[in-house]
Amino acid sequence: MIGSLGGNLDVAQVVLYAFWVFFAGLVWYLRQEDRREGYPLEADVSGRYNRHPFLFVPPKKTFVLPHGQGSKQVPDFVRDTRPLAARRFAKAPGYPIEPVGNPMLAGIGPGSWAERAERPDVTAHGDARIVPLRLAEGFAIAEGETDPRGLPVIGCDRKQAGTVVDVWVDRSEQLIRYYEVEIGLGEAVRNVLLPNNFVVVQSNLRARQLYVHAITSAQFAEVPATANMDTITLREEDKIAAYYGGGLLYALRERQESLL
After folding, report:
1. What are phi and psi of 167, to 5 degrees?
2. Does residue 75 have a cis peptide bond before it, meaning omega lies within 30 degrees of 0?
3. In the chain, where do the E strands start and end?
4. Does domain 110-256 correspond to CATH entry 1.10.8.420?
5. Which residues contact 52 (CB under 8 A, 6 or more apart)?
6. For residue 82, what is the DSSP state?
7. What is the pLDDT of residue 35?
8. For the whole model, what pTM was predicted?
């Protein structure tokens, strides 16, 4: 018989079995690779975890980081030891948690953030990627476009939070990433960053303004600050974006309730 390899075995069967073996190996490989970070899992309530997992956990792989940042091996089994600013509704697995204190700084839900590196993101040449326009040589607001500097910033309560004093540009993507907003009066004046993704430029009969639906005007006072007013680290980026993201749920009490 054509294609037969024996009395009860033919080429089609061999190909099928080979596919099964290949597919099982592929699943095993993918399940290993997706455990390079975030594993081993911890128990929901007790926090216990397996210190020496073996199933599906891959051998360590070394990644050489660019621009002299050294190397990193994963999986490294480093636990997230950040204190959780929240309390559980009940002491049983699966119950939800609620934030304690300012919910937008609690680091949970839409306000959660990753423990990224405390260094700025860099361009292909190793320079700081996101910088204020005052330091970005060769960058300017495009001719004919609205210059946001000097425009008022309005919170979701329709009150003015502050005024844009500068914009922070992405030197790799050539676009605006943040608005630097001056808030407060007198000795309480400070500058905070406002991500461009949370801004809607509105026009009325008198002038233009930057409207922010995420938070109220008063809540701008607690936007996480940067250690250096001329650069922003990866971790600071996450914290600032998380604050505004958390505001979409926690800024107003009615946002946390059901519609019906």
Report:
1. -120, 150
2. yes
3. 61-64, 71-74, 86-88, 97-99, 130-132, 152-154, 160-170, 175-183, 190-195, 200-203, 208-211
4. no
5. none
6. -
7. 83
8. 0.83
Instruction: For 44-69, write each residue's pLDDT tens digit.
Output: 777 777 777 777 888 889 999 888 88
| Euclidean distance between CA atoms 133 and 171, whole angstroms | 10
Cα–Cα distance measured from residue 80 to residue 47, given in angstroms and rounded to the nearest whole number: 11
Q: What is the 3-state secondary structure (H, E, C) of 117-134?
A: CCCECECCCCCECEEEHH
The angle subtended at Cα 118 by Cα 113 and Cα 119, nearest 5°, is 120
More confident residue, 218 or 144: 218
Q: How far is CA 77 from CA 58, 60, 118, 136, 234, in A?
A: 12, 10, 20, 40, 22
214 and 248 in contact (C-beta within 8 Å)?
yes
CA atoms within 13 A on the CB side of 236: 20
Per-domain residue ranges for the chain?
110-256
Residue 187 clears pLDDT 80, i.e. is over it: no
Report CA 11 to chain centroid distance, whole Å: 51
Cα–Cα distance measured from residue 36 to residue 16, given in angstroms and rounded to the nearest whole number: 31
pLDDT tens digits for range 166-177: 999 999 999 999
